[in-house]
Fold this sequence. Notes:
Blueprint: H1 2-12, E1 22-28, H2 50-58, E2 60-62, E3 65-66, H3 72-81, H4 85-88, H5 105-111, E4 115-121, E5 133-137, E6 147-150, E7 153-156, H6 161-176, E8 183-188, H7 263-267, H8 270-292, H9 298-334, E9 340-346, H10 365-368, E10 372-375, E11 390-391, H11 395-402, H12 417-420, E12 430-435, E13 446-451, E14 454-459, E15 464-469, H13 487-503, H14 519-534, E16 540-544, H15 546-549, H16 556-563, E17 568-572, H17 578-589, E18 597-601, H18 604-610, H19 614-631, E19 636-640, H20 652-664, E20 673-676, H21 679-682, H22 702-718
This protein binds calcium ion.
Amino acid sequence: MLRILLVLALAIGPVRAADRPNILFLFSDDHALAAISAYGGRYAEIAPTPHIDRIGQEGALFRRSFCANSICGPSRACIITGKHSHKNGYLSNDFDTFDGNQSTLPKLLQGAGYQTALIGKWHLVSEPQGFDHWHILPGQGNYYNPQFINAQGTKRHEGYCTDLITDFSLDWLKNGRDPKKPFLLMCQHKAPHRNWTPALRHIGGYKDKTLPQPANLFDNYDNRSSSLKLQQMSVAKDFSWGHDMKFRGKNEWPAHFTALGNGEYERMNGEQKKIWDAVYDPENQQFLAQMRAGKLSEKQITEWKFQRYIKDYLLTVKAVDESVGRLLEYLETSGLAKNTIVIYSADQGFYLGEHGWYDKRWMFEESLAMPFLIRWPGVVKAGGKPESMIQNIDYAPTLLEAAGLPVPARMQGKSFLPVLQGRKDKTVESVYYAYYGENTHRVAAHDGVRTATHKLMHFPTTKEWQLFDLINDPQEMKSVHADPAYASVFAFMKKEYAQKRSEYEVNDAVVPKDRSKEEWWIQRHREKVQESKKAGNPDLVFLGDSITQGWEAAGKQAFDASFGSRPTLNLGFSGDRTQHVLWRLFNGEWNGIQPKAVSLLIGTNNTGHVKQNPSETAMGVKQIIDFIRDRSPETKIILNDVFPRSANKDDEMRKLNDEVNRLCATYVDQQHVFRLDMGPQFLQADGTLSKEVMPDLLHLNAASYEKWAKALAEKLKEIGVQP
Ligand code: CA
């Protein structure tokens, strides 16, 4: 911390409150680099992005900018927490709710005197925290006449989503904020997300033009993982009749189009529909006539779909660019431009037909990449195109440093302020990526590492490795992992991958995991979420597996006698490992509570179920401690040594637990984390565990619970918490 502050002070001098830069974070959804002219891709001459381009011309454009997890919610969680998905708890859009009680960029800026606002798409399920003002779309939101939510409730607004978000943002800048304070405004568009619905003033914009298609639109997925063929995101097969392709009425060609209708069209008023129909109907009728006449080959049908898709996509970008233009203009006329950092980015890239796809998720370049353009007058040199790799987890540390604030040690991203200031060429040698899988689009879970020249991917389900040479095969058409010529590169990349996973603490014990397929488990979880909400503030929380759950059964009498007189919350779940506890905490069981103390006992199932490496189990325990410390710094944690198991002290599982305890002892600081080792009370002098203490040599009987209750009560007294 001190070092960071010192470096910062040397670099840019002390940051005075009055000088702290404003931050205008302009953000969109699914914006591919190829759809920004400044990136010079396939649509460099066509992409309607003069204002976005201008940010790069007056500032810098990062070509090697990547996300940590290529889907909407998770990428946003990475950005505001500065952490990888497994550390911020928002792994996928399927089941997760973002735990807003954790430390985030807006909260830290707000705490340091910034005015903070969030306008547009949020998509993290829980209510935004850390913003003085928020005005957001519910979930994905709509393009036409969308509803918005703010603290007062939900309201429908007539108009086009991108324009409304811009209007609301300008209104806050002009009338909503305290002009004496610096600001963070996160202006976050829905566009150009599916279903790519342009503004009425833009529809038909590329009429009669044929836009270029990618060379690998008809990729056959040879020479790569078998999982590529299983996806459901292909231009040829997976576009829907109404939602994606904008036909009306009944799906005439179910073999070519999936069934989903165009809900956006249904939201339009009569006037809007009239303008829409005048453009889309003639084109649609022409295509359908050719279809009915049997004139189109499969290839031609796919190419027609691609044209419909890419034109609509680029036209939604056009409105986003106009929005950027309006905001840049306001910064100039108001005099704010000089001291405002302007960033343009999107939650991830997108496939514009590459590999035959739309959508994202894969670690292949087009959706791994995020646009990142930044203008900061007087700091970022105009026209720069830094070679440095950056990642979305780096934004929070960078912006905190830019605001003269310390970067919390638990943030995993790395500030690239030195690159922005021209003091360094790069800050990292490689980036780590992890996609945890969702039901939608059937993309297999995978993770990997990317250097400036190569990319390694790993698919855990099929245990496949993929290696790509990004210099000689930029389209990633052939994995060279089995090519002897790449043996040393493959070995190096695997080492880099292992190193990154170790650095970011990625392993099964740390990655939050639900057991939602087990009915009793998810039911108990729901009850505990409700109990946590109602609990107000329990004095004591008991966190763990079956042994903790047992306070409600064999240990009930002992529990009631020792702790029954005060508010308590039992978060023990039979069979849980560290990863399950983490999932429960992230998903509502730790509902903003600030207990006086927590009894934590977890790990024996990591040992018992999979004989997990003790260093991994210990990392899982540490992640639980970090979780509590981040949300409730005053809570005292009694870290129970994992209880001895098995009769014999030389039993393999006993020894694994011993090793977990040895490693976890290093987390004890006698200030926030205290140790309680019941081993000596439960074991005989020679280390034997008796069935009189634990009848199944794993779980306690009533008498043993009494011993544990007594020891816990004494420990609580010792650390200043009255039991
Ligand atoms: Ca997205």
